[in-house]
Every structure is written in structure tokens, then in C-alpha cells.
Automatic annotation (TrEMBL):
Site positions (Increases basicity of active site His): D142
Active site feature: H141 (proton acceptor)
SUPFAM superfamilies noted in UniProt: Trimeric LpxA-like enzymes
Family, per entry: Belongs to the transferase hexapeptide repeat family.
NCBIfam families according to UniProt: NeuD_NnaD (TIGR03570)
Organism (species): Chitinophaga eiseniae
Pfam families with a match to the protein in the record: PglD_N
Domain PglD N-terminal: 7-87
Source species, domain of life: Bacteria
Protein name listed in UniProt: PglD N-terminal domain-containing protein
Database matches in InterPro entries: AcTrfase_PglD-like, PglD_N, Trans_hexapeptide_repeat, Trimer_LpxA-like_sf
Endpoints of the signal sequence: none
Length: 214
């Protein structure tokens, strides 16, 4: 996490946002109070609660980039990107890495990313900005993944894979080594990727095939 005095502002107070609050609590000194370290932020129209789990909830209209480091706890890559695009250009971002995650040597992790409990990132991997690696995801050696990359729990990615921006993997999906995937691809739950994916879209099955709109 960041080492300055700004409070960490978690965008989204739903299930994942509350999990992220717990991850922050897991890194805290026992003398610290979570209310002094973090808050939630939601769209003004959804701002119906003053506090969640003992921390303040602020509306977007109250955001001040001088007071907060932001982390976006929303799974949809496109929604996350939209939030980044509408935040002030001087916004700074926190990176949350749970202490039970294993991060190997020479790994690069972009700002605003969230690495959850039990995740494994092997050596020489590069992770873009605002990425999310959910519970027990494994990312193999020498992988390069773009901004807004997202995995649901239990995703296994072999070594030397290259993925573009906005790629999303559903629960228990897996990828063969050296596979390349273009931007804005969604892999469904349990999908197995064995060859390059060069077209945007949604892919499901074993091995995955692109879903065709009817």
C-alpha cells in the first residue's frame, strides 16, 4: 500500500469492496484504527449509508484527490476504466497486496491493482494498472498482462502468456503456456484456452470458442 498520510478510498462498497477493506485490515498495525485509514466511495445516487463496516462512505461529489489514494473494488474491467476516466487527472492510486499472496522476484505491478489472499505471481511477470487477481489465482513466469486485467477465483495461467487490456477470466479458467490474448476478451467459468485469441469477445468451453450473437 502507499506509505503517505492519505486515506485509502475504496470505490465500491459491495462484496468485493468489503473484502478489500478486510485485506487492508490484515496489513494494519494493531494500534491503528481502520476508520483512520480507509473509507468507501460510491456514486451519489447510491449514497444511502453513512458508514459500512465502521468506515465512512462518501459520495463521488465529495472526492478530493489531495485527501485520498484510490483503489477500485469493482470486478468489471470496463466499469473500472470508466471510473478512472472520470476521476481527476491528479488522482493517486493505492496498490493492495494481501500478506498471504506470493509475489516472486522481479515482478512489476501497476498502480491501483489488488492481489488477494493465496494468489501467486511468478518471476518476471508484469501486471498492468488497476488489475485484480482474485483468490488463488496463479500467474506464471514471464507473463505480461495489461491494464484492468481481472481474474475470478481459481484461475491458472501458465508461463510466457501475453494479454492485452481489459481481459477477464471467470472462475477456474486456465491458459496454456505462451498464449496471447487481445484486448477486451472475457473467458467464461471453467474455460480452457489452448491457442491465441485475436478477436475481442466472450469465449467459453473446453477448449474455448467464441460465443456468436444470434
Amino acid at each position: 500500500m502507499t506509505g503517505n498520510k492519505k486515506k485509502i478510498c475504496i470505490v465500491g462498497a459491495g462484496g468485493f469492496g468489503r473484502e478489500v477493506l478486510c485485506y487492508i485490515m490484515d496489513t494494519m498495525d494493531k494500534t491503528q484504527a481502520i476508520a483512520d485509514i480507509a473509507c468507501f466511495m460510491v456514486d451519489d445516487e447510491y449514497h444511502t449509508e453513512a458508514t459500512v463496516m465502521g468506515v465512512t462512505v462518501i459520495p463521488f461529489s465529495a472526492f478530493d484527490a489531495l485527501l485520498y489514494d484510490v483503489v477500485i473494488a469493482i470486478a468489471d474491467p470496463a466499469v473500472r476504466k470508466g471510473i478512472v476516466d472520470k476521476l481527476p487527472v491528479d488522482t493517486t492510486y493505492a496498490t493492495i497486496i494481501h500478506p498471504t499472496a506470493y509475489i516472486s522476484r522481479q515482478v512489476e505491478i501497476g498502480e491501483g491493482s489488488i492481489i488477494t489472499p493465496g494468489a501467486i505471481v511468478s518471476l518476471n511477470a508484469k501486471i498492468g494498472k488497476h488489475a485484480q487477481l482474485n483468490h488463488h489465482t496463479t500467474l506464471g513466469h514471464d507473463c505480461i498482462v495489461g491494464d484492468f486485467f481481472t481474474t475470478a477465483p481459481g484461475v491458472n495461467i501458465s508461463g510466457n502468456c501475453h494479454f492485452g487490456n481489459g481481459v477477464y477470466f471467470g472462475t477456474n479458467a486456465a491458459v496454456r503456456q505462451k498464449v496471447k490474448i487481445t484486448d477486451n476478451v472475457t473467458i467464461g467459468m471453467g474455460g480452457i484456452v489452448v491457442k491465441d485469441i485475436l478477436e475481442e469477445g466472450v469465449y467459453t468451453g473446453v477448449p474455448v470458442r467464441k460465443l456468436v450473437k444470434r
